[in-house]
Design a protein that fits this description.
It is a single chain. Helix content is 44%, strand content 18%. It is built from 12 helices and 8 strands. Strands 1, 2, 3, 4, 5, 6, 7 and 8 form an 8-stranded mixed beta sheet that branches. A hairpin with a 2-residue loop joins strand 2 and strand 3. The longest helix is centred in the C-terminal third of the chain and has 20 residues. The protein is globular.
Length: 272
């Protein structure tokens, strides 16, 4: 076994801290590292271009794809530019525009997700935040092209799910995926935000928890201490996972693909 990937036990709260680490690789890093000939597209053809979501066309192992990422950035100026990874409705509309384009040109879709949730500002609500997310969920459920989504850091609330109605859903080992943050969980359930560590454990938000519930399809191993310790190796492992999944999904009949996607999320609904 590669010593860099030797298993270490961490608590759910430690996973939260690793998922939020300031040096954790961003979606933009994975696009630049794993894909060739990336061409970024901008705007939702309605309001503007949301920098929290980047997307365009690229290739991976000579497979042409559409790649989309909710990204926080990697330094203070980028955090501000990317709105700390919290998309506005125009971001979700841009993502859906690119996804519909991918369907038209028969390109598989790869989504990287790292977000605390959709931006809750007044302007976002006025421009239809809830509707934009709901529309993504509806359209992705029947989109006639393979979809792979990877939670690379935080995957919280409907803001994450809007890019995660996929045929294959993966999580990096120390990422988290949940209906809300541990802070929000503790504040709502116990009226005590100081109980965040307990909330992280009770809410079952880790990759291991979600795989155990069959909410996700697989866990992508990280180097000891987290992806930020060795981003290059993390990208290598993640790239292999994506390529293997693409080759598997491309062999499936499109009607079968959509039926399987529908049944996957119906089963999740029955679970909840």
């Amino acid at each position: 076994m590669d010593k860099d990937f030797m298993k270490i036990n961490v608590t759910p709260w430690e996973s939260v801290e690793i998922a939020r680490h300031k040096d954790r690789p961003s979606g933009q890093y994975y696009i630049e590292t794993m894909f060739k000939d990336f061409i970024e597209f901008h705007g939702d053809r309605n309001f503007g271009d949301d920098q929290a979501i980047i997307g365009g066309i690229a290739s991976i192992n000579d497979i042409n794809v559409t790649v989309i990422a909710i990204t926080k950035g990697s330094n203070t100026s980028e955090y501000i530019k990317r709105n700390f990874g919290m998309p506005n409705p125009e971001g979700y509309r841009k993502a859906l525009r690119l996804m519909k384009q991918a369907e038209k040109f028969k390109r598989p879709i790869i989504c990287f997700i790292d977000t605390m949730g959709a931006f809750p500002g007044m302007g976002a609500e006025e421009r239809g935040q809830g509707q934009a997310i709901a529309n993504n969920l509806f359209e992705l459920s029947r989109l006639k092209t393979p979809i792979i989504s990877i939670i690379t850091g935080e995957g919280e609330s409907g803001g994450a799910l809007a890019l995660a109605v996929a045929d294959k859903i993966f999580m990096l080992e120390h990422s988290i995926y949940s209906v809300l943050s541990p802070e929000g969980f503790a504040s709502i359930l116990w009226k005590d935000p100081s109980r965040v560590k307990e909330a992280a454990a009770v809410a079952k938000i880790t990759a291991k928890d979600l795989k155990g519930f069959d909410i996700i399809d697989g866990i992508v191993k990280e180097p000891r201490g987290g992806a930020h310790k060795n981003p290059v190796k993390t990208a290598e492992v993640l790239k292999k996972t994506i390529v293997d999944s693409l080759l598997e999904l491309k062999e499936k009949d499109l009607n079968e693909l959509i039926d399987n996607r529908y049944n996957k999320f119906r089963a999740m609904g029955n679970f909840y």
